[in-house]
Amino acid sequence: MSKQILFIFALCLTLSVAAQKSQETPYGVVIPQGFTYHLDVPFTPEGEWVGKMDLYLPPRTDKPTPIIINIFGGGWNHGNKEKQRGFSNFFKAGCAVANIEYRLVDVAPAPAAIEDVRSALIFLLRNAATYHIDPQRIILMGGSAGGHLAMMGAYLGNDHRFDRDYEGIGEIRIAAVLDKYGIADMVDFSVGEKPYRSAVRWIGDRIGDREFMASVSPISYVNADTPPTFIVHGDADDIVPYQQSVWLHDALLKAGVETEFMTIPQGGHGKFGTEINGEINRAMVAFLRRTGVIE
Fold it and tell me: Do residues 121 and 102 touch, judged by C-beta distance below 8 A?
């Protein structure tokens, strides 16, 4: 057999084995061999709108697994969980993923989206044993409006002001937050020097209520017990000002919270490209390892 034929045979075999090691879900998420998935799992209390999540779970071991709650962005007015991808680095690190949806502004204005993120979190805490996840190693992640909601869901901790059904869950302690160019200060973002139209719309009739806007601002809740937070932001972002992350990082440092701030030089509002996104994902996994959230 010629060397060329041997090479082609070996390549085909390699591709065949690689194909067997992963599968693609109906929503286009590629999961490794041994992982299981549960799509459109309802997590909200009974009502007119039913929130759903997609769960991607690693093979069971003797230890419960860490889980990342992923929250899509889109200015609180568009987007959906079905278009979320890019979890491979977290799957390789042995993490489960809960990819969730929430009410957009056309369904309900603030604070509805925060309520839904908290409902998803509470659902996972209640069902931690069922899905073999570690309630002490829950990570919230999101970009843009999703980053804002990830921070709100985590930074509220045991503050139940936006929770609709929390009896019997005990202490809420989030392990870490992965914030990708999220909004930290909704007051400035809504009524500051350059108000963002979608933020004004999301705040709705309470746009003149600074106390309410502060209550939906992650930076208002930063204290010594705030979870470790990884921040990434492009310094040329023309939608969510880079300064938002600067303020957040400064507040976290002042409170003594473990944090890492990754600046993307000349980076816009996400869409950094495949190479940079790969660097960001690897940096986030490294942050989770350094903070002891994953092994």
Answer: no
**Tokens, residue 194:** 């350059």
Q: How far is CA 112 from CA 49, 106, 116, 159, 164, in A?
A: 11, 11, 6, 16, 10
Task: Give the span between the Cα atoms of 215 and 291, in whole angstroms.
Answer: 28
Q: Please give the structure tokens belonging to residue 83.
A: 């278009």
Counting residues of the chain whose pLDDT is more than 70, the rounded percentage is: 93
In whole angstroms, what is the distance from residue 148 CA to residue 213 CA? 13
Q: Tokens 């950094």 map to which residue? A: 272
Q: What is the pLDDT of residues 121-135, one digit of tens each?
A: 999 999 999 999 999
- For residue range 258-279, list pLDDT tens digits in order: 999 999 999 999 989 999 999 9
Give the Å distances, CA to CA, from 10 to 2, 6, 22, 23, 130: 12, 6, 19, 22, 42
Show the tokens assigned to 132.
Answer: 């073999």
Average predicted confidence (pLDDT) for the chain: 92
Task: Provide φ and ψ at 209, rounded to 5°.
Answer: -95, 95
- Radius of gyration for the alpha carbons in the chain, expressed in angstroms and rounded: 20
